[in-house]
Amino acid sequence: MAINLVKGQTIDLRKNDKGETFDLSSVTIGLGWDVRQKPSSGFLGKLFGSAEEEEYDLDAVAFLLNNNGKVANLGRSIQRNGRNVSMFEGDVIYFNSMRHPSGHIWLTGDNRTGAGDGDDEQIIVKLDSLDMKYDRIVFAVSIYQGRQNNQNFGMVRNAFIRAEDNKGKKIARFSLSGDATYNGMCSMTFAEVYRKEGTWKFRAIGEPHPTDSFVEIMERNYLA
């Protein structure tokens, strides 16, 4: 059974305090959320009190950091469908650059609505194979055009991040409940994994940010 973490708590990903060990050759980092429902505006909705769920496009991001805590490789710019795409094949995994050039970390897909149960987005990391130059991975989620659409994490319910090992064993889960604390906050640093003494640690963070741009988070915290 996965350990339910509280904000700021750190655990060893390779083994827990019950002696259970985990296969970190491949770890699934799952992120999920629900969006609060709003009363239906239609006649039947008003009559029967039904509700409809707003569509939110939340994007999971992973920053691969070196031993200085910085993103060293910002990748390159490419043209895709007539648009300029930056940070392609760099050390930032996001919807326009879903797979790291090493092949050891990738985003499985871009969920643009948040609909459905379970994980909304997953990032797979081959922790045991990751190059030693990477010391830390930070996982964040931002609401695409959140400020423009007046959407924020105060409107998001049941947000979580979880870790599962290569054999499907659940390692840890960190849940955040949307409340007034998150009003106006359009991004969230959920958690990080980092190397320590030959193993990997997982730390629950839960730090909200007003910006809806993960690039701003990176520039403020993880660029040299």
Automatic annotation (TrEMBL):
Coiled-coil residue spans:
none
Identify the residues that the record assigns to the TerD domain, covering every copy.
1-209
Q: Fetch the InterPro entries from UniProt.
A: Stress/Tellurium_Resist (IPR051324), TerD (IPR003325)
Q: Name one Pfam family in it.
A: TerD
Q: Which UniProt keywords apply?
A: Tellurium resistance
Record GO biological process:
response to tellurium ion
Q: Which family does it belong to?
A: Belongs to the CAPAB/TerDEXZ family.
Name assigned to this protein: TerD family protein
What species was this sequence derived from? Mucilaginibacter robiniae
